[in-house]
Design a protein that fits this description.
single chain, alpha+beta
Length: about 110
């Protein structure tokens, strides 16, 4: 009798496992680039110089269309900001690219 009850309990547990184990189907691939990017204006709130591994980086804090910190190497910072005359208080263009089930990608337009 005890063996029969144990067999029934194990059978029910095995059969119900797929229902309680999470998502039964995959969520899907990221869909970056399938929908058009959203564009908006950003304000450069601050620029901070950071030293890491004996290299210089710049942290650029932007606000407006979205709020983010971007970290650039010295060369990237020169190409994207210094060479174009951007500094704290400057207005720049930003993008949000939808990723579907993946998180959105935030970027500053070159």
């Amino acid at each position: 009798m005890k063996l029969r009850i144990a067999y029934i309990i194990i059978t029910v547990a095995v059969m119900s496992a797929p229902f309680f184990s999470g998502c039964l189907r995959s969520v899907g691939k990221c869909t970056y680039g399938k929908e058009p990017a959203q564009h908006g204006k950003l304000v450069v709130k601050s620029v901070e110089k950071i030293y890491s591994d004996k290299r210089t980086f710049y942290r650029v804090h932007v606000d407006g269309f979205f709020k983010r910190d971007f970290i650039y190497s010295e060369d990237e910072f020169f190409k994207k900001f210094t060479s174009k005359g951007y500094k704290s208080g400057s207005y720049i263009e930003g993008n949000i690219i939808s990723g579907g089930p993946c998180p959105p990608a935030y970027s500053i337009t070159d």
